[in-house]
Design a protein that fits this description.
The chain is mainly alpha-helical and 208 residues long. It is built from 11 helices and no strands.
Length: 208
Amino acid sequence: MGRPKTNDESVKERLVECATEMLATRPRESVTVRALAAAAGTSTTAVYSLCGGKDGLIGEVRNRAVAGLFRDVSAVPASEDPLADLYALAAAYRRWGREHNHLYTVLFGGVQSFDPSGAVGTSDPIRPLLEAIDRGLAESVLAGETRSIALSVWVTLHGLVTLELAGALDAATAEDTFRSTIHATLRGWATPAVFPTLLGTDLSQARR
């Protein structure tokens, strides 16, 4: 009989879950291979054999975060209204962050940053946002440069979601602030012809 396989996918899953929580809640320097193994109830050897070491494990956490965020934002269907689509994408981003607090913190809390000037892959979470902005520019409802608009929207979103996850905003305030701030950001990039119509428009209802 062969030796039982102890370092299997279930062990890897525990390592990823423990790494996600530790990276989100502790100083990164305290997240050692020994600490990760102890939290997952396994050996340090498992970290290397299953993930290639601490960096590989951090990479696995990051990949899961990127894939999860991309899955949620790319599920937002395109409509005939690019501005309403941008609002829907912002809502999907916020929803994913609220539902995956630790993954969000790992992805945008220092382990991985957002670089709108970098190359955009086919599964990059920023792609649906860039595509909606490009449609808005093509249809003359937005004025500006795609990546500048994307960065503006992301900075606004990131600030809102970070404050909400930190508990700085109660539920009602967070909801009202999200709606008004995203509307204001999109109005700021709207063309002069479109801007007046947005003052009385609720983009959260425009796609319904």
